[in-house]
Write a structure and sequence with these properties.
alpha+beta; Aspartate Aminotransferase, domain 1; six-stranded antiparallel sheet; 5 helices; about 25% strand; globular
């Protein structure tokens, strides 16, 4: 995994600094936020500094539940979702790529929680991230799940 770049606890990341770092991935960042806003109108994101990881992460929250964390690499960003065992059938039935399903199956467990983390490089990656947000149990979007796995 690439090292995260926002590591100074005294400097809160700004949109300008973010876009300077991720360059052409700016479109994917904006698309992810727009997609989240469309699916989860009450969701909000903000930067938090985490001492354990010694970096700033962008935390997207809906009704006190974290949907995902985003960390910034040198030229892109990574989103991480945490799922309990209840999500397994939803992930398996979803149209997510096999590589993401495999990461969920074989990923490190934290008790009954597993992480799925992915770099966002393309518009397709944004679609996958939005689908992962929809899959999180308890975070079904206003219009229902778009992929049909209920």
């Amino acid at each position: 995994m690439d090292p995260l770049v926002f590591t100074d606890p005294a400097v809160v990341p700004t949109e300008e600094a973010l876009f300077a770092l991720i360059g052409p991935r700016r479109a994917q960042w904006k698309s992810l936020l727009a997609g989240m806003s469309e699916r989860f109108p009450e969701a909000a994101g903000e930067w938090h500094y985490y001492r354990d990881g010694k970096s700033w992460l962008y935390k997207m929250v809906r009704k006190k539940k974290t949907l995902y964390w985003a960390g910034v690499d040198a030229d892109t960003f990574r989103v991480t979702f945490y799922f309990g065992d209840r999500a397994e059938p939803l992930i398996e039935k979803s149209p997510l790529p096999e590589s993401i399903k495999e990461e969920f199956r074989t990923g490190k467990r934290f008790g009954r929680i597993r992480a799925v983390s992915m770099k966002v490089l393309t518009a397709r990656d944004v679609d996958h991230a939005l689908l992962l947000a929809e899959i999180r149990p308890g975070s079904e979007p206003a219009g229902g799940r778009s992929y049909g796995a209920r």
